UniProtKB/TrEMBL annotation:
GO molecular function terms attached to this record: nucleotide binding
Domain (Gfo/Idh/MocA-like oxidoreductase N-terminal): residue spans on this chain: 2-128
Xref: SUPFAM superfamilies: NAD(P)-binding Rossmann-fold domains
Protein name: Gfo/Idh/MocA family oxidoreductase
Signal peptide span: none
Organism superkingdom: Bacteria
Length: 290
């Protein structure tokens, strides 16, 4: 299976390629990243400052062919990873490759608005494209196996770096939000967010009355973790994201059509962060109306 990458301005381009090419996984044995479109956003310093370096390494270290357009990447490969760091670009990039009907993974942040997320999902349905987006934190190997029905609540913590072009919560907050939804499941009904110069606190209330929180840390350790409250115990678990486990799920979707994260849940995660942004600015609780 030949994989194409759109967006070489993220460190995930190299990390995912390295994982697919060098990890001894049966699922990856016939998977090769063969083509890429570099991209890059001029008004996003973290994007434009490193895209040329990453593109050079992709060609030198892995023999990836650089293409002048996203369409040529889609035409020459079997499945696509949209890894552009800038979530504002994902909708237009997806629109451009829809006619090729190739399976697609879109890296975080999926989009920066519910409107864009809804349009991508609608296009995927229209063109019958298998579509997935997820944070690698969802696949942390230390996550305990719990059925969602046993979970009373969860408190997630993690870094909350802010990039001005990506909204307040979408750049790094999406990792913690993805983890919260991985544990709690869909069905959040309202969101309240508070922010200081040091931290953010986001509280979600689910339809059964269960509550989940995110503590976003800007001044402190660069680590993720969760306190998981079940009917029998409370467990605190430090977590490390897993690119390998994420990519196993992505390739399983590409090859076998098996979803571990459905687009409808991704849409709810984006709406959750959008509501948190609104709550932070308006200093009030916001309802999760989809």
């Amino acid at each position: 299976m030949n994989i194409g990458i759109i967006g070489l301005d993220s460190s995930h381009a190299l990390a995912f390629t390295r994982t697919l090419h060098e990890t001894q996984e049966t699922l990856f044995s016939d998977v090769t990243v063969t083509a890429a479109y570099a991209g890059g956003s001029p008004d996003f310093p973290l994007s434009i400052s490193r895209v040329h370096t990453f593109a050079g390494r992709m060609t030198k270290e892995y023999g990836v062919r650089l293409m002048p357009t996203v369409q040529e990447v889609a035409e020459s490969t079997d499945a696509i990873l949209i890894l552009s760091a800038d979530g504002r670009t994902h909708l237009n990039q997806f629109k451009a490759i829809c006619p090729y009907r190739k399976p697609v993974f879109i890296d975080k942040p999926f989009t920066l608005s519910t409107a864009d997320a809804s349009e991508i999902i609608k296009l995927a349905e229209e063109f019958q494209i298998p579509l997935m987006s997820a944070s690698s934190l969802r696949y942390a190997e230390a996550l305990p196996e719990c059925t969602r029905g046993d979970i009373l609540g969860a408190d997630v913590y993690g870094p909350m770096h802010v990039e001005s072009t990506q909204g307040h919560y979408f750049w790094y907050g999406i990792h913690s939000a993805e983890l919260l939804f991985r544990i709690m499941g869909p069905g959040c009904r309202e969101v309240t967010a508070f922010s200081t110069d040091h931290d953010d606190l986001i509280t979600g209330t689910w339809k059964e009355g269960r509550m989940g929180t995110i503590r976003g840390i800007r001044s402190g350790p660069e680590s993720f973790g969760i306190s998981l409250h079940t009917r029998n115990a409370t467990r605190h678990v430090p977590l490390e994201p897993s690119y390998k486990e994420l990519l196993k799920s992505v390739i399983n979707l590409f090859k076998n059509g098996v979803y571990t994260v459905h687009p409808s849940e991704t849409l709810e995660v984006i709406r959750f962060l959008e509501c948190a942004e609104q709550s932070r600015l308006q200093k009030r609780t916001v309802l999760m109306e989809m």
